[in-house]
């Protein structure tokens, strides 16, 4: 994906991934302007996490772990997730059979040819999707409530089982900034203005994420749109903005 992006958008600056601490217990923020492939990076990370390392003798190189994807800007496309996952599965099957073409020869003695689409393992696809948990929030209060439900580092599946999370993905963590800022102004009808300030909201989000990490050391990946120039590192933190 990175190689393709470099060809299509040579001006796009990609972070030095060998220096990014992508491991359980850490928080990685990906910043950049709109349409700089931040969500795509998060999607690729999610797919790599939910894929198994190996399935029926075919190597996929995944982690076979659960992912919680919190969508704050409501732009997530489940069909894009399905297409990326499907292509990864078919590509692995094609590599296992020594070809990346449209047709794969299964039995040379009988000249049996099948398409890569026929090699798409529905059971594998379903197993992967069961490890992907999608959550859409429409306000900061919903976002905070969602984080509170994840304090043990687990999430409830459709079968009612508690699933241990490995990666928590937050797409567009600053999506509600302007809405929250507008809500800070008291109206004529509301003179008893007692709402959380923007600073308090941010602190609350950080506190809830830290509570989750204290109980369960998972990897947190968050994207944020850069509105006013490149991100400036604070408190000695390393940031790799996408330009």
Automatic annotation (TrEMBL):
InterPro entries in the record: P-loop_NTPase (IPR027417), RecA_ATP-bd (IPR020588), XRCC2 (IPR030547)
Residue intervals of the RecA family profile domain: 1-243
PROSITE patterns: RECA_2
Membrane-spanning ranges: none
Domain of life: Eukaryota
Coiled-coil ranges from the UniProt annotation: none
Name recorded for this polypeptide: RecA family profile 1 domain-containing protein
């Amino acid at each position: 994906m990175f190689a393709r992006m470099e060809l299509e958008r040579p001006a796009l600056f990609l972070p030095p991934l060998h220096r990014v601490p992508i491991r359980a217990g850490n928080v990685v923020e990906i910043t950049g302007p709109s349409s700089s492939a931040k969500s795509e990076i998060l999607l690729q990370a999610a797919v790599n996490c939910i894929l198994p390392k190996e399935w029926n003798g075919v190597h996929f190189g995944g982690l076979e772990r659960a992912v919680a994807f919190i969508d704050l800007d409501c732009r997530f496309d489940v069909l894009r997730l399905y297409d990326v996952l499907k292509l990864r599965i078919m590509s692995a099957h094609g590599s296992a059979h020594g070809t990346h073409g449209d047709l794969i020869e299964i039995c040379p003695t009988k000249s049996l040819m099948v398409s890569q689409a026929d090699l798409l393992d529905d059971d594998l696809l379903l197993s992967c999707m069961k490890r992907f948990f999608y959550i859409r929030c429409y306000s900061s209060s919903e976002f905070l409530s969602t984080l509170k439900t994840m304090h043990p580092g687990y999430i409830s599946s459709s079968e009612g089982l508690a699933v241990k999370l490995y990666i928590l993905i937050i797409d567009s963590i600053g999506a509600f900034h302007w809405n929250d800022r507008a809500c800070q102004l008291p109206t004529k009808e509301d003179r008893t203005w007692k709402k959380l300030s923007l600073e308090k909201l941010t602190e609350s989000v950080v506190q809830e994420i830290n509570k989750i990490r204290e109980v369960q050391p998972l990897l947190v990946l968050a994207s944020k749109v850069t509105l006013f120039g490149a991100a400036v590192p604070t408190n000695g933190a390393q940031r790799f903005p996408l330009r």
